Amino acid sequence: MIGNTRITQAMKNKMAELENPFYLYDQETILGQVRRLHRDFPDFEFLYSIKTNPFLPVVKTILGEGLGLDAASLREVEIGVEYGLPKEKILYSAPGKTERDLRGAMDHAILIADSLHELELINKLAGEKGVKLGVGVRVNPDFTMDADHGAAGKFGIDEDQLFAYDFAKLPNIELIGIHVHARSQELHVEVLKKYYANMFALAQKCIDKLGMKMEFINMGGGIGVAYSTENDTDLDTAALGAESAAMLAELRQKLGGVRVIIETGRYAVCTAGYYVTRVVDVKESYGTKFVMVQSTLNGFIRPSLARLIAAYLPEGAVAKGNEPLFTKMDAFDFELLTDETASEKVNLVGNLCTGTDIMAAGITLPKAKVGDILAITKAGSYAYVLTPVQFSSQPAPGQFLLCADGSMIAE
Ligand SMILES: *Cc1c(COP(=O)(O)O)cnc(C)c1O
User: Has this prediction a pTM greater than 0.85?
Assistant: First the structure.
């Protein structure tokens, strides 16, 4: 339940004006999420993983709280620069950076090399400039969030390869930090606590084996969101913060003022976002009721993707999360803004010329009529950015930031 008339009234007003679907991001919710992280992890630094939602008013809201930027492309680095972030608050980590990417970013962000090839390329570029460049390295460690051994993957440099590498070959760079992002969407304190402990041990190992000057330990993301209203429980950030503070105090006795960084995308914005569409037709076919809304998979694809995944699952199987495209079957709530009290079982479908734009099947909704507004929750992260909005040349959804005073910022 949205249960907040400030938000639902803003939805109604904007739909009356636009007559087209849109995303609404609630600034108060974003601020609440970010401030909770700062409160619960006072001695940690946070970076906003902007790929989750690069809508500028959202980005400004978050950076305004003092977060730095986890940039995954040269353009994302540039957004940080345009906002006015200093170099040390933009960490550029992505696989497969090109020479052009590295050249464009090296003066504006801390580069995090994703491979031995990238380390060598950065060494070459730094040499051309005649500088000694401090760089981070993304490590593929000898652990994951779920196991005590490493796993093959496309990200980073295997721990063993890093320790075996002859860094004397790279005179123009100096390793100043490590980065690992094991995975997203974890809701258990114990899992993240163990992961952080592993990260601190990895940092010590890098110092011991490589003589690294450890300026930062970037532990990546992992802080999850309770997507499913019925089956998920919020991560206890206060408990994780307290456990982590104790570990950090111990680490600081050895490593002094090292920056310890956590990245977050979804936690800041997921629950602040709503996809708002409207009913354009209601019909019945062979005994099934269809409620048709405007722009489904071309407006917010993830509910339709979940249906598609479900269609290929063996009976009774549970689909594994595949972030950020698929989290779980019941990740999103559908709420019809209506005073209607009678309800019925419906299939919620879209107005596209494909049969795959099914947002939900067999759900119970209040009796819908043409013109009713339908809001979908948890649409703040990996929502607009993942959606093929050009499909069938429908108008793209708008995006708005709802401010505390009720105003809506469009850009
Ligand atoms: C996408 C990403 C994140 C953000 O993950 P969330 O689950 O949205 O918090 C953090 N770090 C890295 C390296 C990422 O690629």
Answer: yes
